[in-house]
Amino acid sequence: MSVVTIERKVLEKNDELASKNRELFQHHGTFVVNIVSSPGSGKTSILERTLEHLKGKLRIAVIEGDVQTDFDAQRVAKFDVPVVQIVTNGGCHLDAKLVQDALGNIALKGIQLLVIENVGNLVCPANYDLGEHSKVVVASTTEGDDKPLKYPAMFRNASVLLVNKIDLLPYVNCNITELKNNALQINPALNVFETSCITKQGIDMWCAWLESQVKNYPLINDYPVPRKIRDSNNKQR
Amino acid sequence: MHELSVAQSIVEIIQQHIPESEWARVAAVRLKIGAVAGVVPESLEFSFQAITAESLLSHARLEIESVPFRIHCNACDVTLENEIGFAVCGTCGSTDTKILSGSELNITEIEITEPEAEML
After folding, report:
1. Nearest-neighbour CA in chain B from A61: distance (Å)
2. pLDDT tens for each residue of A31-50
3. Is A185 close to B109, i.e. CB distance below 8 A?
4. For A182, which residue in chain B has the nearest alpha carbon?
5. How is domain B3-68+102-114 classified at the architecture level of CATH?
6. What count of CB pairs under 8 Å joins A to B?
7. What pLDDT is attached to residue A221?
8. Is A233 on the interface with B (CB under 8 A)?
9. Nearest residue on chain A to B103, judged by CA atoms?
10. Staple A42 to which of A38, A164, B2, B72, CB 3.0 to 4.6 Å?
């Protein structure tokens, strides 16, 4: 009997590809978020409200991940942004390779913000780094207040928690203070925003966070910037 | 469900260390999995058996060592364990803590049986 010592991360191949994706994002000055949640929390609706709110302010591209159909890509395409749909055909999460392949179909040049909407699943996507700068987890009030304790991995790795469907709070069995406390026990550094895609409550705060992060990833100088930003810069001079 | 992709990654790593012609000699693959790594050991064992059933690796078993979730609190200088993965100190409530372990998903060793006389 002999033993071969290995000491390697099982998912190191994914991590290596994720690092390559991250280098590419860094090179283009693109800030990248990976939005995760259980199915039906409102990821796509939040994305729609976000695209609406940031129209003319930021240049945005989207990667949509779904098990089947390109329905979400169709919804996003209405906002006139570059969008690529990844269909996993049964796969329960996106991985760095799928994102790398999708990046072949997006011109990142001049893109300030890339939003990756992961497959609706609070378990599996937690293990797979895609090369994003921040994970954003969405938990909606209709799911109750114990989600962070049941699915801690997702909350531990996230920078932002969006508590969505806040307008439904009076009608559902969810203690919002408890929900936030549970999440902050797992990850005290979480930025928490309460949002509603119907009343648009909190969308401005969330978008302000995105804009503040984008500033940390300046585009390379010779890239053209959106006209509105250029114009407002000129006015300031 | 992603245990299937994790099992696939394990096979790929075995492939890089042991030539496929010698896979029948692989007795065990040792792993360290953190308590909050999000991987269910039973499910991973099942997935590994399922994808290796038709291969020379079908006799290989997974030996999984569980690593507890552990934090160190800088405020009261204690090291604590908990199953859920609370990063807040359970003793003093401080958020000035450091996560020490619990997210591991590592392959550590492959155990190989010596070739038997008839195999030579």
Report:
1. 27
2. 999 999 999 999 999 999 99
3. no
4. B86
5. 2-Layer Sandwich (3.30)
6. 95
7. 54
8. no
9. A153
10. A164
Residue A232 has pLDDT above 60, yes or no: no
User: What are the tens digits of pLDDT across the range B46-72?
Assistant: 999 999 999 999 999 999 999 999 999
Please identify which residue in the block is written with the tokens 């958020």: B95
Residue of chain A whose Cα is closest to the Cα of B86: A186
pLDDT in tens, A115-130: 999 999 998 999 999 9
C-alpha closest to that of A18 among A151, A112, A135, A139: A135
Listed by start position, the domains of chain B span 3-68+102-114
pLDDT at residue A58 greater than cutoff 50: yes
* Contact partners, residue B94, CB within 8 Å, separation at least 6: B73, B74, B75, B76, B88
From the candidates B5, B40, B113, which should be mutated to test the interface with A, based on the most A CB atoms within 10 A? Answer: B5
Residues A94, A125: Cα–Cα separation, whole Å: 7
Query: B108: distance to nearest CA of chain A, Å?
Result: 4
Residues B18 and A90: their CA atoms lie apart, in Å, by 31
Q: How far apart are CA A166 and CA A93, in angstroms?
A: 27
How large is the average pLDDT for residues A144-155?
93
